[in-house]
Amino acid sequence: MRPTRLATAGVVTLVGALVLTAPASARPPSEAGGRDSLQVYVGTLDAGQVEKLRATGADLGHARRGTDAAGRTRVETVLTEREAARLAGQGVRLDVKKVRGKDAAQALREQSAAGWTAFRSYSEPGGIRDEITATVARHPKLTKLETIGRSVQGKPILAVKVTKNARTVPDGKRPAVLYGSTQHAREWITPEMTRRLMHHVLDNYGTDPAITRLLDTTELWFLPVINPDGYDHTFTPGNRLWRKNLRDNDGDGQITSVDGVDLNRNFATKWGYDDEGSSPEPSSETYRGPGPNSEPETKALNQLFQRVGFEYFINYHSAAELLLYGIGWQVSTPSPDDVIYRALAGDDANPAVPGYDPDLSAELYTTNGDTDSHATVRHGTLGFTPEMSTCEAAAASDPDDQWRPEDCVSGFIFPDDERLIAAEVAKNIPFALSVANSAATPDEPVSVLGHTTPDFVVDSFDTSYGRTQQVASNIRRSLKNVQMHYVVNGGRPKTSPVREWRGGERYGDTHDKYYGEFRGTVRGTKPGDRVEVWFTGTKPRTGPVASERFTYRVHGDIGGDVLVLAVEDVTGLSPAQTGTTAKYADEIAASLTKAGRTSDVYDFDVMGRKAPHPLGVLSHYQAVVWETGDDVILRSPGQVAGTAARAALETELAVRDYLNEGGKVLVSGKYALFAQSANGSYMYRPEGTTECTDPDDTTCLPLLNDFQQYYLGAYNYVSDGGTDPDGTPYPVSGAAGAFTGFTGQLNAPGSAGNQDHTASFLSTSSFLPPDRFPQFASSATVDWNRPGAAPFDPRTGDWYLYSGRADEAYKRLSKTVDLTSATSGELRFYTSYDIEPEWDFMIVEAHEVGTDTWTTLPDRNGHTSQDTGESCASGWANELHPFLAHYQGADCSPTGTTGAWHAATGASGGWQEFSVDLSAYAGKRVEIAITYVSDWATQGLGVFLDDARVIVDGTVVSETSFEEADLGGWTVSGPPAGSAPGANDWTRSQQAFEEGAVVVTEDTVYLGFGLEGLAPAARDDLVARSLAHLTGGSRQ
Question: What residue stretch is flagged as signal peptide (predicted)?
């Protein structure tokens, strides 16, 4: 497989690296060459920088351009100048791509002005719309023109049905295939593919026997431009890189960077499943729209799927040279009908389209609300997405022509060259026709590679941990009389009926129209037995068929109700350890015994460094304790820095499958899943018998953090988040649920004394609220007992004030202080903040009541500066917050019309005290405001306030920790004139973000430390409480 090295979150420090994205909901109109017009940028980024780029809503799936010697990702992406400047302020410096000395966008504008030779718009005279109409008129017996719907702007979306007697044969009566393209407007090579394929079959009907036979028996439907508005828009000045449709999201009557919906994220199936596979933000390139199937283009295509009932759908996109299929909303999720997809698409060594890489859809990136999944799940249509060639690949295809890869403005901009376009289409035609030829018998496809589909794909394993054992096989649904057979220790064969597995809690119930997973049961075995298993059935018109046979051995350590999954990697390299067996499994087993549970052990090192099989091993247990001991990175002999063993992913997927079928898991280890948390920094080889030994090897793929985020409830992993500055772990104590009352100290007497690293977690529900994302419900139930308050908890008492997160916001918390009889005054308050550096700010505003002489005041403790930052240079005082002109000059100097600029930005590093001198207002009444101001896009966690005091002549005259609803005399006063009301404002809160040493979901408990690091009594207590949480009942 070709890797997609796109890290989507890095290991972070406790406070300060959590810059989270909520792109802007409105922006000024874009002009060609302006700060909001699209430009091509390039750069080389580390994992954390790639995450910040992803957070802008950029289309990162197509951004990767390889890695350098240090394993950093080379990217090419499309951004506005404003977005690039904002990223630069966060330390992500990208350069405008240069093509022959010119900015990429300028080169595009010049090319557009000169005109295109091979490409045409949809609506121009003689454009694709006219061509479709003329083609149908020329072939009245083979074609029928359909207007399947209209676009946002009312343009007809035209499809052509091609088959013998197309106008008289009812739609869908014959096996049918749909070829579609241009959901994404800038992908110009795709309508060329679809329309030229249409001409190919029409032009060869009657002369080519194979095509004649195909059109006599099969319906081929061609939909060259699914997004006519967006496609036409890319032919206008400055808009060649536009991706979405033309929904006017903000209703301002203009199409700017905040407008448009990604039509390949708008379908109802898995719409909005998470915010990674699609975005809720209108400015994002993957904005999913205001609701499922909200767009007229989506409705039109959905109705066509429903009306015709296609067997196959090929959805052409660009640009990545991939052949994608199957499940895309979750990484590494095979499905039964993948048997068919693989037969047609091929594999890395022998792909159906030369130079393309066939694989599961999520190899490129996860998607939800996508077209292929919806067509498959809702309408039974098998979908492929070919990602056609990049500009660079096409330009390099002929060393003797005038095209050079370095002249490519963007990977999306396929060369305007008839010969190269024709060659790209030609190499795709055999695969396209093989899909058409498979429509009559989808489960026995006609592969251009000569591949056939097996009747059985058995899920084999070599070890069972049960006397009774389920065995699964992916089986062709058309088979009759399917049974499973087994032989124990060479004895007489026995037969078991099979039942279809209907899927688990999250997956396994889709993409199974022609194949399904069926299971039989082996009974009556004992430890040490050897069992041979196979499946049989009857194939219509063929007769009896049988699967391959496999043999497993029943393990000797079975019968417990909890499994200790010891993946300590003592025979691995990171770190090098002594011995060959797990060191801490016995301690955990002893704690399980204390909790009244029986247990078995699966020792990864003893079992040949192999992951446990989900059915063969894990399925036999009520719960699993997955412990990693002293391991840091699961790494095999011969591997190097930046790599990880394949078993790291395989173990994760086995545990995920177990959870999907109702399992319960406790994860323990001082570095448990550390490599995954680094999200793209460690590479593994997904297939073959060898491990990844070079992180730059293109056959290696990155370990990602999806399992931690979406199954374990840890959205952010904070490395050493429970460790004090001297390297000593903080104590831990239970805070909720079954963990209330638990206390423990790591490295206490009687423990292993090995806890030299900890982790803290921010719960997934802090970022994906459970009312909208119930599938990810999670909470932090055990705290690190740090001195003082945790950075996201109230400093004192039970309440604090929280700013919330919103773009384009001006949030004031105001109070009037009477200093008419005073000689001095002071404001003191505590704050913990995580603010987008140099773009968003916290300020303390002040003015004499009854005047307009506003200014901002400095913090005497040194937390403010006079740097006006990047947002000033981007014009926010003109466009968003004109009131800031009081403090910032037109040249972004820190002096405005009435006052000076003093502000805090970035991360506070926990709770800090501000001291603001009010003595300049002695003898007057002064209104003060603690204010949070944000720009167009990108949010940190926000600002937290507690323990505010006003001191007059040395005496505290007002004090509050916001325990009461009256806010202690403070007022949420709203934005000043000129700033729009925000999406939210200051609110009292008891906890805005859950952070802790342990995060739980209904089915999992994830520890930021190792159980072996607790004293025996504390370990016993925590194990018992964890099992009570997972399996119910009381502690022993």
Answer: 1-26
